[in-house]
Design brief:
There is one protein chain. By secondary structure, the protein is α+β, with helices and mostly antiparallel strands. It is built from four helices and six strands; from the N terminus they run ααβββαβαββ. The protein has helices at 10-27, 29-34, 86-101, 117-122; strands at 43-50, 57-66, 69-77, 106-112, 126-131, 140-146. Strands 1-2-3-4-6-5 form a six-stranded mixed β-sheet. The longest helix is centred in the N-terminal third of the chain and has 18 residues, at 10-27. The relative contact order is 0.12.
């Protein structure tokens, strides 16, 4: 007999991740090959643009690297600074750090149809997937790019 529970449990979450990682390594030579390498663990990658006058955040990028991939999670530019190239500079800086500093060969991200798919295409990203109605009324795009 089993009992299903829905509460958030940090210890179980860690255990779940460890068990899934072990199962993946058992079934996949590629996942086994990651073990013990610098690319085995996710490492945060963040780039910030701070207004020198006000000290306020003007733009930022938050992501992570893992398995020779950069994953861009968030990229935002404050409205008064849009169109000044800050988004491009953030993306370029993150890609450079991922490629040169961390040995990444690819990048991936998700964006919604009303956000920035055209921006990412201009920077060499290609749409590899789309999820319609996520959330309802919106399409999510999954994009990738070879680095270097």
């Amino acid at each position: 007999m089993f009992r299903f529970e829905t509460e958030v449990d940090k210890e179980r979450r860690v255990l779940l991740g460890e068990r899934l990682e072990a199962a993946n390594a058992q079934r996949s030579p590629a996942m086994r090959a990651l073990a013990g390498t610098p690319h085995e663990d996710e490492v945060p990658l963040q780039v910030w643009v701070v207004d020198e006058t006000s000290g306020e955040l003007a733009a930022g990028l938050a992501g992570r690297t893992w398995a020779r991939w950069l994953h861009v999670d968030l990229l935002w530019v404050d409205t008064p600074h849009r169109g000044a190239g800050l988004g491009s500079q953030l993306l370029t800086a993150a890609e450079r750090e991922a490629r040169v500093g961390r040995g990444c060969t690819n990048s991936r991200l998700e964006t919604w149809d009303f956000q920035a798919p055209a921006f990412y295409r201009r920077h060499g990203y290609a749409v590899v997937g789309r999820v319609p109605d996520y959330p309802p009324g919106v399409t999510e795009y999954i994009l990738t790019k070879k680095l270097g």
